[in-house]
Amino acid sequence: MPQYRQFQYKAYQPVMSPYWYFDRWPYLKFMLREMSSIFVGWFAVVILLQLNALVSGPTAYANFQHWMATPPVFIVNILSFVFICFHAITWFMLVPRVVARQVLQRPSPDVLSAAPNFGIWLVASVVVALFALRVI
Amino acid sequence: MATLNRSNRPLPWMVFGVGGFLVAFFFPVHIFIYGIALPLGWLPTPSYRSTLELVHYPITRIYLGILLVMAFWHAAYRLRDTVCDAFAMRQVDTIVAAACFAFALAGSIATIVALWAVP
Asked: Does the residue B8 lie in any domain?
């Protein structure tokens, strides 16, 4: 029977600040990218409201257009544009991280792997704009 | 005999991934046109009739349906983690997840109803 007190292991309990994402810029960048989801939800609702106004008639659609031009809504839309472009760029730049790629047995540059996404983004934007503005 | 527990995580992750691509490709141009350029008068505003005509095309309705449903689920999947991480609420993850996915479900139903209601 030992006369000394046996060493007691203490469970490791990491201490993490609730606001850990302010500690370093990459953490904050991660959190800002995640926050783009708020603006995705917002603008999905806006498109639904636009659709509803369109179905309701010319007066309702004119009211919707006036509402879109009010300062609070306009500012949220600007923020949405910035955050969703940030989402798009970071999303497209993930491709080189998840796809095994090589050209002539050498790893291809990140930009080359991500480039097709940016090309598709440009073409998709032009096509949607031409339809939305009723050019075609 | 050991029971093989297969995670159902890949299914919502696939919806999140597809939604992420669709949002990245198509949302910026929607926001730019309807949220910025038209309110500022940078572009000529198409008439009500021509915009309604656009929504009459089945391809437009299919496009909007897929885009919006996927966007709602993408946003919900990411919003759940954002709320839990930003406000240290991981211990109530189930409630946050339920609220976010209920929002996505409501948005999806509203999208289908709105597209169905187009005359």
From this structure: no
